[in-house]
Amino acid sequence: MNIFPRTITGALHSQNKNACDWGWQSLVAYGCHTSVVVIDTKAVQVIQTLEKHKSNVVKVKWARENYHHTIDAPYTLRLASADAGGQIIVWDVKDASERASFSEGSKPVLDLEWLSTQDASHDLLVALHPPYSIVLWNADTGIKLWKKTFTDNIISMTFDPFDSSNLALLGNDCILFLNDFSINKSPSSNGRKFYITTPGTSGPSPSTSSTNLSGGADKKIGHRFRRVRLLVGDNKPRSSQLGVEDTDSITLNECLQMTYLQSRRQHLLLVYPREILILDLDIYQTVGMIPMERSGSPFQQVYPCKQRDVLLCLHENGSISVRVRRRPRSTSPSAATPVDQIGNFVGLTGGDSLLSHDPHDVIYDLRCQSDPLRVTKHMRAFGLACCMSTERQMGLLMSDGRLLVWSLMTVNHVPTSTTNVHTQMVLSPLYSPGVVPGVTNSDFEFLPPLSNTGRQVLPHPKMSLGDLICQTDITGDSNGSQPQQGRGVILKFVLTGLSCGVASVPTVIRMCPPVTTRNIHKYKPLVALGSSTGLVQVYNLTTGSLWREYNIHTSCIRGIEWVGLSSFLSYSYHNPPSNGLVRNELLLLDLLTGRTTPLRGHKGDEAPIECIKVSHLKQYFIVMLKEKPFEIWDLKNRTILREMPASFPVVTALEWSPTHHKKRSAVSIQETVGSSSLLDATGSTHHILDGSGDSKLSQTSATREHFFFAESNRMLHHFWVEGSVVKEGSRLPSDSGLGSITCMTWKGETLVMGDADGMLGVWDLKARVSRNYPTHRSSIKKVKFAPGKGNLKILCLWSEGLDIWDIKEVRGTSSMKVTKEQTKLIDADWAASDKPIIVSSDGCIRVYDIKLKTTCSPMDYAEFADPVFCPYLLSPKAALAMKYTMQHQPWNDEYTLQLSKEYETPEDENFIRAVNDQFDIMPQKIKNYLPICPYGTAQRCLLAAQLFGDEAETTFWTVALQYLKAEKARVNCPVHVSTPDNPGAGYHSDPFQGEVPGALPSSNNRSLLMDTREEEVVTSCSCIKDPLLDTCYDILCDSKSYQKYQLERLSLHDSKRSTHEQTMKCAENLILMGQFDRAVQLYLETEAENESYYLDSILACLVATVKLTGASQSTIKLVATSLIANNKLSEGVQLLCLINKGIDACRYLITYREWNQAVWLAKATLPFSEYCTVLRRYVDYLCSPTVNQKTKAILVLLSMGQFQQVLEVLMSMHYYDRAGMFAEACMEFDVLPDTEEIRSLLEKVYLEYARYLLALGNRRAYGYYCNKAAEKGHKVSQELEWMED
């Protein structure tokens, strides 16, 4: 029930657009005016609000989690935010503290990006500062490492996810590409400049190119499809070069977003309102386009997924569409078109719609779309954030402060008639990853478990997008010719969460009566907020969550007054017309039932209500009308007691006395100013803090209550009310030093008044002393005492700020002044005895500390409406203990998700309880699945990494698990068992065949992955039939699928070439890939007018007539070597590939440090033994001190099946926990040979892991792994026993 400083946000500022991000921790952060809001997406509740920015927040970015987490590098919530004033703040979200703050200029930061180019550096932040500067910052220290200034204005930037040295910059009319980005020094060049243009129809166009559409198809499709663009550079093309028929000025001004495709290398997306362009950067040309239908809502933002080749598109109407890449299987006119693709072909509904597109075009099918929202001027889509860990959850941020959490799910595909054009995926279902044996309609795994112990088999939890659908490249044809392991599914959107903010345009805020000894057991710190739309929101300040919402008024709410802990009065009226008369609405609301009781309903047009004053015992209330006499009401009976006569003076301020009389006997009130108190000493007085708004005094006879009011001439009047009797008491002239009294507050024997000139008048009624104190402010709008017995602090609200005064010391203790550029204060109140609460014109509620300095608090002692599952909130030691318990616990007799006394140090009691609390709220499906994971430790480590949002662990265990499976399958395969150390053999399917043979489980259960029929056990392959990894893993994919993808991409480049340069580049790649016949055809296409005609003809003859004889090979190799020595590297490599000397070509490429080209050539063309030679050198390069990318090197070793080297590199990096778990996984899969070298390595691994666990306090695990470490571990155990003795 404690109240801490916090901010409750509302509607967003226009500069907050796109300032949202979803981190790996499953937390969403977004900017709201000058605040940064953090939301837990599982319970959909605000868990933190950060405030230190002076300007509106324009960018937020969560730190990456792709580093090894230890006690020294723990799981922390790091967030970077930038504002319109150029300031960047790096936050520790848990502690609500500023880790670093820095700026470069005073203009809005355009973009932010965290870097992770080296294993040792995960605190580097790249910022794009206007108009054309990029700065690399150390986010921990705020030190500027380097700055690069360009000559063109830059709008946004995007890093290549496959190569950290590549950076693309979007300018006003061009795109800049950098290929030398480094953390050590700024880029040396200004990059290559490219412009966007449209090829004119008047120029020459090859028949194989789809960039120029003509004929009947062009007439059907219209002008939109003729605007297929390509990139040309380095000089901006003139309008005369764009073609006769191209009247449009093609610029980048209307480009909304530029981003790299996360799932495929060298692909760039350009997002326009009516179309999305997919550019292949190897040919700098458009290879696909997603047009928007004429009636469709324009694109606003696109998130390219990584796990699958999927685009998540945000539209202006607030809907989100999912578009999945489809590879056309057939180009025949009879090929059926999926119904969901009809819109993508601009209205063509016939089967010949495919004729209007090149069969090689990159096409994204519209698979599902969320419901559109009712978009208005004040409610628009402001940003889309996608969960980077799962990619199946999206957060839609609206301008009114709402966050909608959408989740993707799958349902079974049911084929229906193709005549229903509104049904999606009628002919082309997606497929789930597989089926668990023995489980009907279950997803993910179709492989036999690691060990069959008779335990229950459960479906794999659908945690990510990769768990919902299989790889898009192996989806079935529309005719279902390709068999699938999984079942046909379609995607659907489900709204799983909604977070609402403060209502727009708040007008008034009131805190409920304070806590007392009588109501402490039922007390809730509720605050009521009124808005201009008639909506009343009630917030619980302990949790900061919206408790109730009541739409009870039809006009702007002008005031709220609580009459108890569960009811309040509120009044509203429209803006007064010229005559100043309005129709007032006065309602009494019961919060528990929601019932409203109208009061003064018989009144017509009258003067507007200025305020309502409720007596301290909640017996009466006064309705004050503007320049009209007030009314006194009986609150219990809801009847009017007295309406003051028309001649009554105009009241400017009024306050009830906090003291009352229990006795009904007549008690004289002194008529003279010389009275020591306004209340006779014969009456027993009681302070209001002795009771609450629910006082039982009202059950007996009415109790006399008093009030004072001031009229316009500063005269004070005293009245008392008892039952139905209202009588006037004394008249007291105000001090002559005060001006027109605007407000007053009364507590005990102290009455404080504020006037229009900024003066405070303090009356000590007991000492008969009156003094005035200047505040040096403008007119005081409100004064109010803080709750609490003996607490004489007051808040003074004025038009430009707020002051806190201590009346005991008669001085201001703290002050807050807002400037013209800042938001104005609307209303203020006390949330607690030392916590003022303010609502401002930016729509935010802020609870300050008593010094008015901070509105955010650490999360250690925060209370939330729902439990928060986030291991990042645990202490470093607790988070690691939780992860290791989830991964593997062989030291326990039974796997259990509870920490017990294995952590025996005294200080561990709190963190054991914290970890067990996290286990209790873990998703139940995961809790059920972890103990029975069919693939043991490796699979549990992957699930734990996904649950933690650990990017580095997720990547490692995804690759490790797939290649452990492949190696186990190879060992058990009767066909490939004789090909040692070749994980590629564990993936066995012809990349050029559309079908793969079916497989059934073996009776002897020899195969881990894909068993064969019993009668084919001698001759049939039992390896994995589908690709191990998706294309986002690039060179980590198995060689078969990698080669297949490269050939498909080469075919796409062939279809898109439109110039001689592009044709020659395509011919070069064809030679490298061994496609000599097609290369000859391309060389022969060169026209006689071309200056390269003779050379190309000679090259065609050379490629066509080359013979693999010893003499010709020697000659060609000699020529190739000479060319390379004379800086003709590309030509020399082509000649070497022409004579099947690809391994030599790779060596030369490595010599000239063309690592990417060498690895590509080796992976795409060489047999396993040869490309492993290249990859080993690549691993050495990655492990070198200048590169320091050992994490990537480990992944490459995994893809080669070099598990022993993986353990050695992990140990050299001191990743003892990951090495220990990987060693356990290798032993479970039985993929390590039983040699002395392996046994010695495992001893070291287990021994270091044992010491690592001992540092965490887990003695039981320490003893277990010491025993596994054999002799060395035995010696350490003896040392431990000696130390204990």
TrEMBL record:
Segments forming domain WDR11 TPR: 924-1230
GO CC terms: cytoplasm
Ranges of residues in domain WDR11 second beta-propeller: 524-788
Disordered as annotated region, ranges: 195-216
Limits of the WDR11 first beta-propeller domain: 15-172
PROSITE patterns in the record: PROKAR_LIPOPROTEIN
Residue ranges, compositional bias (Low complexity): 197-211
Name of the featured protein: WD repeat-containing protein 11
Record organism: Patiria miniata
